[in-house]
Amino acid sequence: MKKYDIAIIGGGLFGRMAAWRLAQSGWKTVLYEASSPLGENSAAYVAAAMLAPLAEAIDATPLAVSLGYQSLTLWQQYLAQIGQPVFHQQNGSLMVWHTQDEPLAERFRRHLLRAHDGETVWQEWTQHEIAAQEPQLAGRFRKGLYLPQEGQLDNRQTLAALLAAAQQAGAECRFGEAADPETAREQAQWVLDCRGFAAKETWNTRSQSRLRGIRGEVARVFAPEVSLNRPVRLLHPRYPLYICPKENHVFVIGATQLESEDGGAVSVRSSLELFSALYAVCPAFGEARVLETAVGLRPTLQHENPEIRCLPDTQTIEINGLFRHGFMIAPAVCETLLQGMNNLAAGKAFSDGMNKERQSMVTQI
Ligand SMILES: Cc1cc2nc3c(=O)[nH]c(=O)nc-3n(C[C@H](O)[C@H](O)[C@H](O)COP(=O)(O)OP(=O)(O)OC[C@H]3O[C@@H](n4cnc5c(N)ncnc54)[C@H](O)[C@@H]3O)c2cc1C
Question: Could you tell me which residue, 1 or 14, shows the higher pLDDT?
Fold first, then answer.
């Protein structure tokens, strides 16, 4: 008789969420995380945690956009259940651009129309509206696109809250323990591998869609003289930028997207690009204090969708490929996992009764 029903390896974003939801559903759960309760080695610890299915639509797959929309509602439900305070804003986001980059804005509008069956899901803001809604950007941009449905979280508060919720639901959470599927299997009937990029070797031994890391660099700055009411994104041909206002005048500035698995410190070039673009958007950031720069590797599959891989022979489930949208899509992926696990517990196939979209995330080996 094994001690646990399920052992989860990796307590970054997805592992914590899964530990909470599974423990809440009655699974006797243990979570192994190689780093501390902060999760400082995870991509989630670095992320801006924007919930932006519209702004991301230009780069994201239709599946990711759809999961992103579903997750906007699920996050509201999750946070209400968790109870612990998490900075969560659903005040839309604002896209701005310099006059010479109007063709980029036009392309973005066309893309949004295509992704939403011709429906106009944004509002055009004039420079007066920008000034009224975001006074600190007054006079800097002639036009903006406001995306009303979008939101954001504080990534680190979310990680802490998910951990507290998992523990409260009865999950045993072990930190500083780098586990591997074989030893975890000795403890639990099922193993759930949520190691993100660290699972690369295991994943790539048997996958059609290879896992790789995509380097992302961000900065956190403290700017007591700056206030923004929502995330602001700069459309730019070379230096796209976002500025995410968190609590207490802390802003996350990001992010580079580099085809590299080098997790080393932020480069001078990237710092120059991020801070120059930031200063160009809003010179009031000139006196901001740099709190930290940070790097994360986004776990990315070739098809750029999330994947839930079932290996019934070894009673293992692997989840990966949350790419640059982990916060945006994780709740919808997690609800799919839960449905699958409950199917397994009832002796059915993992994807039994799932809709087509959920089924498209699941592979059976
Ligand atoms: C710069 C940057 C900006 C981003 N911005 C956004 C954003 O605005 N919105 C958004 O939706 N997403 C964003 N993301 C993406 C998001 O962070 C990821 O998609 C998400 O964190 C992936 O979750 P995960 O749980 O799969 O992996 P991770 O969050 O990386 O967690 C993996 C965990 O596994 C642990 N681990 C590894 N090996 C072991 C082992 N052997 N034993 C135990 N534990 C182990 C690691 O320590 C880590 O904690 C961003 C990412 C980056 C890098």
Answer: 14
Which of 93, 298, 317 to mutate for ligand 1's pocket (most ligand atoms within 8 Å of CB)? 298
Query: Residue 261 and residue 11: Cα distance in Å, rounded?
Result: 20
> How many angstroms separate the alpha carbon of residue 96 from the centre of ligand 1?
28
Residue 87 lies in a domain: no
49 and 117 part of one domain: no
290 plus 231 within the same structural domain = yes
The CB density around residue 238, as the number of other CB atoms within 10 Å, is: 6
3-state secondary structure 120-173: CCCEEEEHHHHHHHCHHHCCCCCEEEEECCCEEECHHHHHHHHHHHHHHCCCEE
31: phi then psi, degrees, rounded to nearest 5? -120, 125
153 CB-near residues (< 8 Å, 6+ apart) = 49, 51, 75, 86, 87, 88, 89, 327
Residue 53 Cβ contacting ligand 1 at under 6 Å: no
Same domain, 62 and 176: yes
Domain that includes residue 160, residue range:
4-82+154-209+303-364
The model's pLDDT over 223-252, given as tens digits with 9 standing for 90+, comes to 999 999 999 999 999 889 999 999 999 999
- Specify the DSSP class assigned to residue 256: -
pLDDT digits 0-9 by tens, 52-101: 999 988 889 999 999 999 999 999 999 999 989 999 999 999 999 999 99
Q: Does 192 sit in the ligand 1 pocket, CB within 6 Å?
A: no
Ligand 1 lined by 301 (C-beta under 6 Å): no
Structure tokens at 46: 């670095």
User: For residue 10, what pLDDT is reported?
Assistant: 98
Indicate if 174 and 270 belong to the same structural domain.
Answer: no
The answer to whether the CB of 218 is under 6 A from ligand 1 is yes
